[in-house]
Amino acid sequence: MEESRVLLVNGSPKGARSDTLKLARAFLEGMGEQGGEIEASALDIAPCRGCFSCWRDEGRCVQPDDMARILERVAAAELIVWSTPLYCYGVPSACKAILDRLLPLSSPAMRLDERGRTHHRARDGRAARTRHVLVAGCGFPERAGNFDALEFQFRRMFSDDTALVLCTEAPLLSEPEAEPATLPYLTAVRAAGAEYRETGCISETVQRILDAPMLDPNVYRALASG
After folding, report:
1. What is the spatial distance between Cα 26 and Cα 10, in angstroms, rounded to a whole number?
2. Position 126 pLDDT exceeds 70
3. CB 98 within 8 A of CB 45
4. CA–CA dist 60, 97 (Å, integer)
5. Other C-beta atoms within 10 Å of 145: how many?
6. Do 29 and 22 meet the contact criterion of CB atoms below 8 Å apart?
7. What is the CA 31 to chain-centroid distance, rounded?
């Protein structure tokens, strides 16, 4: 996979200081890729107006902002790694604006998938073949009940095969004293990247490590509360 075909979308308002970005870069390191990077909070991207002008004008949005350039990069990418912290059980507003403004990549025409779900057809065949990886971190120690809506959105928008790196206790990644717990986790994220490059998926063995908390939840809750 050519480096220019890999796109990293940093959805965190913290920019380069993002805990989740550390995970995404570790995943790409495991893949042996660097990837072009988009920092959502640094861009001028207005909310979608819901006017559907893009469907009447061959995929062109009427809003003159940075999204036109982003759409070109998204459509050309073979792999998009979405790096986002969990905000109110979804994504931060700047990242949500990008997701909403992907509408020009689809068309009004509908199709029925093998699971009986209706989708809009992709306007460009390249975008339909793009693979996606969701890397997200949250401040709670439990995966279940926290990432559910985020996982649903990305797999419903893109593909049931969207790979998931959903890290609980993510604030530990910024604490040097937590490295005995965080460094093994980052090693597992790199292993996930290596597996994904070779097979297009993450093995059950590595996925179990990624889905587990880095610290005992009772210990983490006590530390976070203090």
Report:
1. 14
2. no
3. yes
4. 16
5. 9
6. no
7. 16
CA distances from 154 to 22, 137, 207 (A): 20, 15, 18
Which of these, 96, 105, 84, 86, lies nearest to 8 by C-alpha position? 84
Task: From 64, 134, 67, select the one nearest 103 (Cα to Cα).
Answer: 67
Cβ burial, residue 41 (10 Å; 0-12/13-18/19+): middle
Q: Which pLDDT belongs to residue 3?
A: 42
With b for 16 or more beta-carbon neighbours within 10 A and e for fewer, the 54-89 pattern comes to bbeeebebebeebbeebbeebbebebbbbbbbbbee
Q: What is the rounded distance in angstroms from the CA atom of residue 34 to the CA atom of residue 112?
A: 36
| Six token digits for residue 173 | 């990644």
pLDDT of residue 1 exceeding 50: no
- Percent with pLDDT over 90 in the chain: 82
Q: Evaluate whether 163 touches 83 at the Cβ level (below 8 Å).
A: no
Place of tokens 């997701």: 99
Location of structure tokens 């072009």: 36
Q: Which two tokens stand for residue 159?
A: 């593909």
Distance between CA atoms of residues 46 and 43, nearest Å? 9
- In this structure, are strands 79-85 and 6-10 parallel, antiparallel, or unpaired? parallel
CA–CA separation, 76 and 70 (whole Å): 10
At 156-213, the pLDDT tens digits run 999 999 999 999 999 999 999 999 999 999 999 999 999 999 999 999 999 999 999 9
What does the alpha-carbon distance between residue 116 and residue 89 come to, in Å, rounded to a whole number?
A: 27
